[in-house]
Amino acid sequence: MSLLVGPRSGWEPGGGPVSRLDSLTGLRFFAAWLVLQHHFTNFALIPVLQRYTGFGATGVTFFFVLSGFVLTWSFVPSDTAPRFYWRRFARIWPLHALTTLLALPVFYTWRDVPFEWGPVLLSFALLHAWVPTATTYFAGNPASWSLSCEMFFYAIHPLLIRRVLRRSVAALGGVMLAVGVATVVVADLAIDWPDRIAGWLLYISPLFRIGEFFLGMALAAALKRGWRIPVAVIPAAALTGAWFVFYYDIAHRLPAPWPIWVADASYAVLPVLYGLVIAAAAQLDLAGAATFLRSRAMVRLGEWSFALYLVHATVIYALVELIGARSSVAYSNILWLGGISVVCVAISAALYGLFERPVESWLRGMQKRTVAGASPVPAAD
User: Fold this and answer.
1) How many angstroms separate the CA atoms of 381 and 377, rounded?
2) What is the pTM of this model?
3) How far is residue 65's CA from residue 28's CA, in Å, rounded to a whole number?
4) 132 cis-preceded (ω within 30 degrees of 0)
5) pLDDT tens digit string along 96-115?
6) Would you list the domain boundaries of the chain?
């Protein structure tokens, strides 16, 4: 979920409902927290860990891959595009609108960012990631740029899903290999572009990030066909961690042009590594294994992760304005990280219980009342 979906049920060609994939819900919390600790560096730094803070920003990559996976896994053949679009709107827009309203005074009053109606309205409409200027794609609630990408993914998912599910595992692998190569080529070409355009393209642009969503779709389709990866969750996670150690501690010491090649390759390698973690966790659930990620506490944290993602930057930057950033790089800042994490999770739990879940349920109920005789809405998305 991405942070936007919950993998509750699925469908297999020639089969019926399959088991819940609650481990994926649990994983969402860790991805959201990675993004939180990345933004925490604007408040305080922790020795050793500060070298890897860029790792946290890639939590969004995880969410994009997971979003493609879960929406494909939970697809029901009887579903229609209009019903799908309404559920997606009910799922993300109300909380996005509320957290944007909460963010406006922090970012446009306390932090003295010039207020412009155009970018803010684009952010409410979730179109701001298409504009290659930071004052636009970070407008409103800065975290919401990724939702602009998600809206694009949702728009094309009904157009692709049946085609993807009809393809063989080999064909899906071939397509993803081609997408990966194209991603690396574009990343390499972007080196010579203006920083403003390259930064937007390689991190913000929905067109560039769509490959991560496609990867999730392809993995889910492959698992539906019985394909399994020969890697467990912990080794897959360890492999991902090893890549980050290599990227941050080793690659820059290699002779030119290896550092550039590693940076280019990371745009394709990292989504695959996250995809391995997602597929491995899903396989455990399909096998009925009892895992920590499926525990009640982790599932609950995963359910709060969307709100956590949308509110954490507002809390952190509000704290920076109220008491100032910590000037020292110290291990004691771990206490600040823990305290801010607890506060953000508590706010997220309240938002989920008091606003996100009831409003989504009400909007979904409108759809059910409007569409007479509609087939059951897939619980997974």
Assistant:
1) 9
2) 0.92
3) 11
4) no
5) 999 999 999 999 988 777 89
6) 10-370
